[in-house]
Amino acid sequence: MALKHVNVVIVGAGAGGGVAAKELATAGLSVVLLERGRWYTAADCRKDDLRNQRTSPLGNNSGPDDDRNPRVAVDLNGGDRVVLPSEGGYSNNAACVGGGTFTYGAQAWRFHEKDFRMATTYGAPEGSTLADWPLSYSDLEPYYEKAEYEIGVSGDVSADPFHAPRRKPLPMPPVPQNREYGILKPAAQKLGLHPFDLPMLRNSVPYNGRPPCMQCRWCVGFACEVNAKCGTQNTVIPTALATGNCELRTDSMARQILTGAGGRVTGVAYHDAANRLREQTADVVIVSSSAIESARLLLNSRSKLHPAGLGNHSDQVGRNLQGHSYSGAWGLFDFDTYDDIGPGASIAISDYNHGNAGLVGGAMLANEFIRLPYQFIGAAPPGTPAWGLAHKQFMRQWYRRSIAIQGPTQEIPIAASRVSLDPKVKDFWGLPVARLSGGKHPKTNETAGVMAEKAEAWLKAAGAIRTWKKLPGKGTSGGQHQAGTCRMGNDPATSVTDQNCRVHHHDNLYVIDGSVHVTNGGFNPVLTIMAIAYRAAERIAQSQKGRGV
Amino acid sequence: MVEIRNEWRYVRFLSHQSINSIRRRKFLRLAGAATAGGALVSCGRTKSPWRFLTAAEGRTLAALCEQIIPTDQTPGAAWAGVVNFIDRQLVGPYRRQQALYRTGLAELDRAAANLGKLFADLDAPRQTALLQSLDGALKRFFTTVITHTMQGYYGDPRHGGNRDAVSWRMLGVPVVPVRGRNRYEFPKQGA
Fold it and tell me: Closest to A395 (Cβ–Cβ): which among B156, B171, B189?
């Protein structure tokens, strides 16, 4: 059955797709927003420490489900295995309305100016594909501001001398401080560092008709009970729907982007909730499925005219997969650090994002979200037995007397870290699944090691009686910060989209999510994804002017 | 008769848990059937109170879990219902690991047989020594059981372990599910 033709079809209702839907629908264009997951509420997603988006031994609370969505992970020795969404190595983000923003910790960072010109600042290390963005920070600044005000950010970055120039302060004051904040702030100052209140997409006061954070311990990985976390599912997507121009279709799994004459695309074939194959035609197609699934959809959209998939003339789609190499340290204290005041993460420094001798980039460092008891079992310092009385005693003695500091070390992209199509394994719908392979550049691992030392020094200054490092693995990362697989650039030989997120050689096909990030900053990437979406959608709306409903 | 007494111990142990009444009725029905079966059938295997594990496997696993998180001033994994947790997951999210448990528990008892007893019947120091000496596939199985035991002991009681939130009390974490509500004034929508 033919569906009514629309101006724009968007695949994925996460950070990028949600913002794009709102911008285009309010500009008067007709929009269909496809989402493979469901529209959950907090009531659907219980506060379950074994079943959430961060700790998922019993499954994910907001998708995707284990039965239909395998992937293949390749380890550093070339061995491959099928992995399910709830297992490590899958690099899961989420599958639901709001995408990752439904359950995230909601850190709301603007990248620094140097994060957009990494190659110019440092030179590309050998074996890397480090490059500058085709955009500068100042191109994005107005859109960062728009994201902060429309979606809602609390915090106070005025004490951070390193932040990039901004015209306005954040719209909401910081969430009240917790005990860790009080312990860590003077310690950082003693070291000559510049601590400040972490910016978060989280209401600290009533904002946009929703209440402030109630500071519970169930934050990152969980849906917010009182709707105080600001995701696209409770901000821009409802706005888009309220225009009457946007239709949201959940349980809709995109199969292929349809192509017409030349480079133009004509719509999306997808499986609806009843698994019927439907075709939604549109003037413009936007792929916003996050870095792994967006690349997979482009690669799976193979045809006679485009045998390698869409946008893949230069074998760039799926390459440069990156996330963040989280590194940091644990510290034990001889007094209680735990106060059960969430979300936990409260204080940050960006002293080490750049300017580290001999390193390429660095990381923002912040204290961690509240560790739920099961999340603490892996925290034991080297030498602690993994079982038996000694482990139990460790838990009992230190759970309330520990602090973790960590940060998202910026990764140096490499072409070998990539998403490709697995030649054998298919998903529930018969589509080849994503195959994740590669590894990290040695420079990334080096920086991660130094960031862990910095975190350890901060904990020691705060009075920790014992500290130890927390180092990332050397395998390909991705996860909730996945990025880079359809990087933007001016040269079609080394990039997939232009600076407006339009896929080279395909006039009406766009990728709007973390896929287009050339580099991923030493910060949580969501605010950058939103800013890029605002900017790209504005340009699409201009190009479609007069074609609206 | 020993078997039957064991069954009743499980029933008592399970019915202590804060499980909802439907689930409790199901347990009692299952356990009752198991007891009746044990009494009527003079030979052959006793029916199990568990969903996946046999009664004998449940006993071995309880001893194994208790080694991983032993009782000291706070109850250990066996009292906390970790076997119930694992058994429940083995017919749910961990169904892919049924074979691993079936083989692993049998192998563990086989290893204990070298010392002349079932694993559960060895004294605690010998159990510890045996577990410390494991290698190969059995060690990998043990590693999995460690992870699952930690989940059952430290995870949410709704999954069948962490009876009476015993571990959360031990750690000093408030057991109110969503603390914060009690000190939070809900502002009026649109304020």
Answer: B171
pLDDT at A416 over 50: yes
Are B93 and A59 inside 8 Å of each other by CB? yes
The answer to whether the CB of A333 falls within 8 A of the CB of A529 is: no
In a domain, A242, yes or no: yes
**Per-residue H/E/C for chain B:** CHHHHHHHHHHHHHHCCCCCHHHHHHHHHHHHHHHHHHHHCCCCCCCCCCCCCCHHHHHHHHHHHHHHCCCCCCCCCCCCCHHHHHHHHHCCCCHHHHHHHHHHHHHHHHHHHCCCCCHHHCCHHHHHHHHHCCCHHHHHHHHHHHHHHHHHHHCCHHHCCCHHHHHHHHHCCCCCCCCCHHHCCCCCCCC
Separation of alpha carbons A290 and A278, rounded Å: 22
Q: Which residue of B has its CA nearest to A50?
A: B155
A258 inside domain: yes
Q: Does A91 map to a domain?
A: yes
Cα–Cα dist A298/B174, whole Å: 48
Cβ contacts of A376 on chain B, cutoff 8 Å: 154
Average pLDDT score, chain A:
96
B156 contacts A48? CB cut-off 8 A: yes
Q: Is residue A448 part of a domain?
A: no
Residues in CB range of B125: below 8 A, 6 or more apart: none
Nearest chain A Cα distance for residue B172, angstroms: 7
The string of pLDDT tens digits covering residues A315-350 is 999 999 999 999 999 999 999 999 999 999 999 999
- The answer to whether A337 contacts chain B (CB < 8 Å) is no
Distance from CA of B32 to the nearest CA of A (A): 30
Picking from A48, A217, A388, the nearest residue to B179 by CB comes out as A217
Burial track A363-381 (b if 16+ CB lie within 10 A, e otherwise)? bbbbbbbbbbbbbbbebbe
3-state secondary structure (DSSP) of residue A28? coil
Q: In chain B, what are the domain boundaries?
A: 1-49, 50-175
Q: Return the CATH number at A518.
A: 3.50.50.60
Q: Do A50 and B159 touch (CB under 8 A)?
A: yes
- Would you call A395 and B184 a contact, using CB atoms and an 8 Å cutoff? no
Question: Half-sphere exposure of residue A313, counting CA atoms within 13 Å on the CB side?
Answer: 14
The answer to whether A179 and A211 are in contact (CB under 8 A) is no
Q: Quick check: ipTM above 0.90?
A: yes
Domain that holds residue A531: 1-100+231-319+424-436+484-549
Q: Is A340 on the interface with B (CB under 8 A)?
A: yes
pLDDT tens-digit readout, A377-388: 988 899 999 999
Count of domains forming chain A = 1
